[in-house]
Amino acid sequence: MTSSPADSSRRIDPFRIDIPQSELDDLHERLDRARWPDDLSATGWAYGVPADYLRELVEHWRHSYDWRAAEAELNQWPQFTTVIDGASIHFAHIRSPEPDATPLIITHGWPGSIVEFLDIVGPLTDPAAHGGNQADAFHVVVPGIPGFGLSGPPADTGWEAGRVAHAWAELMSRLGYERFGAQGGDWGGAISRELGRAHPDRIIGVHLNLLPGAAATHEPTAGELAALGPEERKNTLESWRRWSAFTSEGTGYAILHSTRPQTLAYALTDSPVGQLAWIVEKFQEWTDSDLRPEEAVDRDRLLTNVMLYWLTGTAGSAARIYYERGHARGDRVARPTEPSTAPTALALFPAEIQVPLRHKAERTENIVRWTEFDRGGHFAAMEEPDLLVGDVRAFFRQLREKG
């Protein structure tokens, strides 16, 4: 898919993943020569990723994992690149066989990638082939955030969630979609929320599986609790407990990302074992699992996600979005000042790192759907694809029926 020569600034070029064998050979050599630190074997995950677990996973990565199979699976999606606001954007564009399908842009977060959505694109684009109703079909666009994976490092600074949202609006215009829906979690949630806020005339609805800023971020006072009903009071206490635990034990990665992403980049870009450990720790902590992330996410899918960071050398540039958020100024700061008017749905998965509060979410969002599930975590599309797909379908069906 290309544009005319007269419109080269909006050109869209076909793309196919084809990693040279030399890069895979280099990876294998590095894995073979890995230097391993000492390990306190009795501490489990308390000090970080246990060496015995990581050695086993690296052994699988080196000798059993098949990148070429993963590459072929990703290449089943039609993929493209285009330059928007100076950044090269890689995206997949999977049109539904249903001509009247709803356009939907889905955005990943960190430490995710487009790999997160391999199990949901088929059911979303062709529901009739997956036991659903053809009226619930979507034309799906899956972009990589600038700095992540195949979208590569942008040449300039400032790629915070608000700027990405404006780029997505332009991308959808180039694809001929003037009205569309948005879905995302993690950074994808922040970006999708900003799409609804900045482009309300174009957004049909925003479906989120994480809403930034909706958790209890301070210990609630007796007066605050007294003003709430019993259920919301219980939720507020749990939200504060979860938030307090996360900020005391789980935010070291974000502090480093938001202050010294370039320093971190040298370690992760040079060591595949380091890159794997940096990501797999979050899959263990943030999924609905006990000891091993493979309890919630397929092991090879997890490795394919890591491969997109490793093969593109984007550990550092992907981390920069945290720095940009912390140092953003002016109209690119994605912090709500006015309530969003875009119809918004929130799907809550119990192992998510935040427990959002409805009374707080409704201060900034136009919440029209609120669904609580009994299983799943941060990587909802990988952990519970059927639940996520069902809720996305139900939300946009709700909007259609309302007219």
CATH superfamily: Alpha/Beta hydrolase fold, catalytic domain
- What integer value in Å does the Rg equal? 21 Å
Largest sheet strand order:
1-2-3-5-4-6-7-8-9
Number of strands: 9
List keywords for this structure.
single chain; 403 residues; alpha/beta; Rossmann fold
Word description of this protein:
The chain is 44% helix and 13% strand. The protein is α/β, with parallel strands linked by helices and 403 residues long. The protein has a single domain, classed as Alpha/Beta hydrolase fold, catalytic domain (Rossmann fold), CATH 3.40.50. A nine-stranded mixed β-sheet has the order 1-2-3-5-4-6-7-8-9, sandwiched between helices. The chain is globular and about 60 Å long. It starts with 11 loop residues before the first strand and ends with a helix.
What can be said about this structure in brief?
The chain is α/β, with parallel strands linked by helices and 403 residues long. Helices cover 44% and strands 13% of the residues.
